[in-house]
Design brief:
Radius of gyration: 18 Å
Number of helices: 11
Number of domains: 2
Shape: globular
Helix content: 40-55%
Distance between the termini: 37 Å
Strand order of the largest sheet: 2-1-3-4
Number of strands: 8
Strand content: 5-15%
Largest sheet: 4 strands, parallel
Order of helices and strands: EHEHEHHEHEHEHHEHEHH
CATH topology of the largest domain: Rossmann fold
Length: about 260
C-alpha cells in the first residue's frame, strides 16, 4: 500500500492539558459535543505543589507544567492543544495582553495551535457581542475572584457583578464548598451551577451575557436552561473551551448546548 493513499482517521487531532489533582473530563465533553468524530488525547500533570487554597501563585512552575504538557501532546501527534482550567492559569495569565502574547509564542515554539483557557473565554464573549457581563465565580476563593475581575477588565469587559456561592447565599461558608468538592471530585451538581448563574443575572439584569468561571463547575448540561431562564447568552469555562477547540479544527457542535456553540 502506498502510504500517501492512507486517509487520516480524524478530521482534527486534539490534545488537552488539564489542571492537576482534579478529575477533569473536558476531553470527554469535547468528544460528546462535537458533531464529527474527532481524536482527543489528554495530559494530566502531576504537581507536588498542587493546591486549591485562596492564592494565585507559582507562575513559573505552572507555566512549566503547561509547556511540558504541550510538548508531550505534540510528540503524540496532537495538532490543536488546549489548556483547560481558569483558576489554575491565573498566575501566568493575569491580563489579556500577556496571555494572548503567551498563546502566540507557545503556538510558535511548539508548532501547534495552542488555545489558552482565558483567551477562549474572552473570544467567546466577543463572539456573542457581550460587553457588559454578570459573572458567577461559583466555588472560587476570594483571591481568585479578584484576579478574574482584573483579567476580564483588562480585556475590556464591564463586569457589572461578580460573586461566588457564598456571596450569592447559596452556600453558608467555605467549609460547605470543601465538602462538595470532596464528595463530587470537583464536579459541582448541576442544580447548584444553574442556580449560581441565575443569581448572578438577578444582580445585573441589564448585562449582555452571563459568564460562569471555574472548571470544577460544569455547565454544558445547563447552558440552554440558563439562557432560557435569563434571556441572555451564556458563556462558561467549559463551553468557551469547547467552542474554541472545535472552531480551531473547523468542527461543528451538536445542537442543544446553548447559543455560543450554535455559532460554529
Amino acid at each position: 500500500m502506498n502510504p500517501q493513499s492512507c486517509d487520516r482517521r480524524f478530521p482534527a487531532y486534539y490534545g488537552v492539558v488539564s489542571p492537576p489533582a482534579s478529575f477533569d473530563y473536558s476531553a470527554q465533553q469535547l468528544l460528546e459535543t462535537s458533531a464529527s468524530r474527532i481524536g482527543v488525547i489528554q495530559q494530566m500533570p502531576t504537581y507536588s505543589l498542587a493546591s486549591y487554597e485562596d492564592s494565585v501563585s507559582d507562575s513559573e512552575g505552572r507555566l512549566e507544567l503547561l509547556r511540558r504538557g504541550i510538548a508531550g501532546l505534540k510528540a503524540a501527534g496532537a495538532e490543536i492543544v488546549g489548556q483547560f482550567g481558569g483558576y489554575w492559569s491565573l498566575s501566568y495569565s493575569p491580563d489579556s495582553a500577556c496571555t494572548r502574547a503567551l498563546m502566540k509564542s507557545l503556538s510558535k515554539d511548539f508548532g501547534v495551535t495552542v488555545i489558552l483557557a482565558w483567551i477562549a473565554i474572552e473570544d467567546a464573549l466577543h463572539q456573542i457581542s457581550a460587553k457588559r457581563i454578570a459573572v458567577t465565580t461559583g466555588y472560587y476563593r476570594p483571591t481568585w475572584t479578584v484576579a478574574t475581575v482584573a483579567y476580564l477588565s483588562s480585556a475590556g469587559f464591564d463586569v457589572l457583578y461578580a460573586g461566588d456561592l457564598i456571596d450569592q447565599g447559596i452556600l453558608p461558608n467555605h467549609q460547605a464548598k470543601l465538602d462538595i468538592e470532596a464528595a463530587t471530585n470537583w464536579d459541582y451538581p448541576d442544580e447548584i451551577a444553574f442556580r449560581s448563574c441565575i443569581e448572578s443575572w438577578k444582580r445585573a439584569r441589564n448585562c449582555d451575557a452571563v459568564l460562569q468561571c471555574g472548571a470544577g463547575m460544569r455547565t454544558l448540561d445547563v447552558a440552554a436552561d440558563v439562557e432560557q431562564g435569563t434571556g441572555k447568552p451564556f458563556v462558561s469555562t467549559d463551553t468557551a473551551f469547547i467552542w474554541a477547540m472545535l472552531k480551531a479544527g473547523g468542527i461543528k457542535a451538536k445542537p442543544g448546548n446553548g447559543r455560543l456553540l450554535s455559532t460554529l
